[in-house]
Design a protein that fits this description.
With about 290 residues, this protein is an all-alpha fold. It has one domain: Ribonucleotide Reductase, subunit A (Orthogonal Bundle), CATH 1.10.620. It is about 65% helix and about 0% strand. It contains ten helices and two strands. The chain has a two-stranded antiparallel ribbon. α1 packs parallel to α3 and α4 packs across α5. The radius of gyration is 19 Å and the shape is globular.
């Protein structure tokens, strides 16, 4: 049986704005064209992707128990804020010289293809992608050097986003458990495994292509671009190498995102920034779906 989300978990909506009125440097992340291209490619995928996540989870809210329904509500509020801030980030990146039109078109086409699938498949895709964002976020917060040399407000945007991704990392997963509560454990595991394998292939391929496109706009092309991007992702700082064990954990039959309890990262962020935000207290009258 899968584990459960912590009974005292509360999702905090930190309604913040970043970088308004500031000019973004073209290579905004430590002057590094590769790092800047990779993270800008990630940001370019977020607004449409997060809108897809919201729709996939919201479709199951009405039938959820009170705890899960409240978490879905706050998940949506957090994701709406994330979309708004990454839209602003993406506009600033375009003003700084990046052309994101082709990336946005590819993301739009992929989202449209996903929206043609049955609701439970869309939900499984969302849960898989939320696992990616959670394990990336864990790395961003445990290894501050990822954004240590970025402009302060831009770095804070990514830290803020990472904190909330960790906080709501199990909402889509718990919603999937709720939606498949009458399935056998084997059938549910097969769905998770097959979807994650496909999502991983598409996510890594598409972000790779997107980052190479942005590097080409800087005149970095061919094998040099591929090697520099590979070295950045897999060697130093090697974020893909570092998240590989946590990614593989998804395939364990009894996996649950909160088997890794990293709420100390949230607490550390709030202690350092004073950004406790607004939240709805957990409803302890029922337990999260955990079939």
């Amino acid at each position: 049986m899968p584990g459960k989300s912590p009974a005292d978990l509360a999702l905090t909506v930190r309604d913040r704005r970043f970088g308004r009125g500031q000019k973004m440097p073209h290579h905004w992340l430590a002057g590094d064209p590769v790092a800047s291209a990779w993270f800008t490619a990630l940001s370019a995928s977020f607004p449409r992707g997060e809108a897809m996540f919201i729709a996939a989870v919201k479709a199951h809210r009405d039938a959820a128990d009170p705890v899960l329904a409240a978490q879905i509500r706050d998940f949506i509020r957090q994701e709406v804020n994330h979309s708004r801030e990454h839209l602003a980030f993406n506009r600033a990146a375009e003003d700084a010289g990046y052309d994101l039109a082709a990336i946005d078109a590819r993301v739009a086409a992929l989202v449209a293809m996903t929206e043609e699938k049955p609701p439970v498949i869309r939900l499984a895709i969302t849960a898989a992608l939320e696992h990616f964002t959670a394990i990336f976020s864990h790395q961003f917060l445990t290894r501050p050097e990822h954004f240590g040399h970025a402009d302060g407000d831009l770095a804070e945007l990514w830290r803020w986003h990472a904190v909330e991704e960790i906080e709501h990392k199990a909402v889509a997963f718990d919603t999937l458990l709720h939606a498949t509560h009458d399935w056998t454990a084997r059938r549910r595991w097969l769905l998770r495994a097959v979807v994650m394998a496909d999502v991983s292939r598409r996510f890594l391929r598409n972000r790779w292509v997107d980052a190479l496109e942005l590097l080409a706009q800087d005149g970095i092309t061919g094998w040099r671009a591929s090697w520099r991007l590979f070295a950045y992702l897999w060697l130093k700082p090697g974020i893909l190498t570092r998240v590989l064990p946590a990614w593989a954990g998804w395939f364990a039959p009894g996996f649950h995102p909160w088997q890794t309890d990293d709420r100390h990262l949230i607490a550390g962020y709030q202690a350092n920034t004073g950004q406790a935000g607004l939240h709805s207290p957990p409803d302890t009258s029922a337990s999260p779906a955990s079939a």
